[in-house]
């Protein structure tokens, strides 16, 4: 029997493309589903061109593939349930439902996985904001549909309530206490339905709510790093995880607080392509195929810089001046402002000396 599988990926952006590249190196065939014929994954795979929630297209993908996976969490879970065959989607659709809704997500993290999250309450209308203690600071987030800081309102005083009330009346929300963190970190963990493997802790620097720079290993104590990894493993085990998951967290002076999970490879894990012996995409493919997972070894300290639309020329010049920097371009044709066009990974243990593209220029 051939060990070559056909893997169907819902979503043909950069994450789908990098998953496909890993799968191809392992000898598999890939078909992606994406609304855009010229999407990043089209450089390396056949594309079924259709909207993500097109049930006929999902069925076609399911009929032609041994295993299905997705590159992002906003996939139509019901549509997928209607077409998948037994065992064809090892990640399952429950994980999608949890990560699509902050109310389910917080409940899962705090009650099932029993990891620490910021104190929160569910808000169904502005009435739920009437009695909040304004000596504390909060973040109000819509339960669904928010991304990169959209659908959020920080509440620091009564002046913020008008906007917060409007947000609370427009959609179900969660109100979280504001965490005075030292660093934002994330941990990538992969599972094969039985065992898990975990990556080093990543330190993430955002600008305008978009990831700008990832530093590995994160500059936190060994004990906090071990704690963060143990929390990611606990979450993965509670999910019987298949494939790769990213756990985003806050590191305070003496503790780790989980913010959210993304059930897929993550921008903050891209450094693993060069800096680890197996990347987050390799372990994703191994995991969804139920194959044994390797322990992850970080060869050297690394820094990843995102290349947004406005940074393309600067980044291309940078790598000609720094030949050991690894440039990845995703093959997107239009370099729009703030659109993720590529990334650069460098080996460096002086992360402060690695300056983000466009720092102090764009924003
Ligand atoms: P999120 O959409 O939950 O990833 O939030 C976007 C960004 O808002 C995070 O990367 C943090 O910088 C900030 N943020 C979110 N929740 C909190 C919180 N409870 N306390 C402090 N900052 C937060």
Question: Would you kindly provide a written description of the structure presented here, covering whatever features stand out?
Answer:
Its EC number is 6.3.4.18. Pathway: Purine metabolism; IMP biosynthesis via de novo pathway; 5-amino-1-(5-phospho-D-ribosyl)imidazole-4-carboxylate from 5-amino-1-(5-phospho-D-ribosyl)imidazole (N5-CAIR route): step 1/2. Keywords: ATP-binding, Ligase, Manganese, Nucleotide-binding, Purine biosynthesis. The structure is a single chain. This protein is of the alpha+beta class and 363 residues long. The protein folds into three domains: 6-89, Rossmann fold (3-Layer(aba) Sandwich); 119-177, ATP-grasp fold, A domain (Dna Ligase, domain 1); 183-353, ATP-grasp fold, B domain (D-amino Acid Aminotransferase, Chain A, domain 1, 2-Layer Sandwich), CATH 3.30.470. It is 27% helix and 27% strand. The chain is built from ten helices and 17 strands. Strands 9, 10, 11, 12, 13, 14, 15, 16 and 17 form a nine-stranded antiparallel β-sheet that branches. Strands 3-2-1-4 form a four-stranded parallel β-sheet, sandwiched between helices. Helix 4 packs across helix 5 (102-112). The longest helix is centred in the middle third of the chain and has 18 residues, at 222-239. The protein starts with 5 loop residues before the first strand and ends in a 16-residue tail after the last strand. The structure holds adenosine monophosphate. Adenosine monophosphate binds next to strand 14. Residues 118, 139, 146, 149, 176, 178-179, 184, 206, 209, 248, 259-260 line the site of adenosine monophosphate.
